[in-house]
Amino acid sequence: MRADEGGKIRIVPAPPRNPLRVLLIDDHLMVAEVLAARLSAADDIWVAGRCSATDPNLAAIVRRLQPDVITIEVAPFGTATGKVLRGLIAARPEAKIVVLSAQSEVALALEAARAGAAAWVGKRQGAAELEAIIRGVCRGESWYPPEMLGEILRGLRADVTRASQDTDALDMLSPRERDVLRGMVEGKHGREIAQDLMISTDTVRTHIRNIFAKLDVHSRLEAVRVARAAGLSMQELSG
Length: 239
Fold this sequence. Notes:
Layout: E1 2-3, E2 9-10, E3 20-25, H1 29-40, E4 45-51, H2 58-65, E5 69-72, H3 81-91, E6 96-101, H4 106-115, E7 119-122, H5 127-138, H6 146-171, H7 175-185, H8 190-197, H9 201-215, H10 220-229, H11 234-237
Parallel strand pairs: 3-4, 3-5, 5-6, 6-7
Antiparallel strand pairs: 1-2
Helix pairs in contact: 2-3, 3-4, 4-6, 7-8, 7-9, 8-9
């Protein structure tokens, strides 16, 4: 039991045995309240908490509540959607992310998929469908609207192709060029790279020009992006 703000005691139902713990993140708290009530009617689902999408302490809330599933409205985040979702996953790697949104932009759904969201559910879908999807993602399934799925899969395939091409490009670098690129990825300047490798700054500049040519880029930023997109660790870059 727990006292409410008026000093009265209200009974808080105990969670079912081994429930799926769900955290609802949505700026529309009334919507979250209604959804929480509907989900709580299920025997195997327990709404462990509700909070606003713009709460500055989202990661801390996730770490404290340890949810199995996080539903989140991504509309407030726009182009930062991927970053926010990756932050939630970092806070609780075991949690499955279900985007529960009124948005229907395929680009936003693709960004969510890239960030690791297991599902994208429209708010117009019923509670029964959401319950099924929550159970499904906990079994390792994914769900995106059929009308979005084709474009999302094409986008993910394109990502794989680009990463493969970037990896092939890195294979063309010499061991010393890979050492220089590693320094660039670490954010070091030419003089620092030269000191680490015990070579002259002129030699570093020559290696950087060769790296640019082989990777078909025109700046350090682009070279670093290619290296990171290839998915190689610092140790792998060093040879």
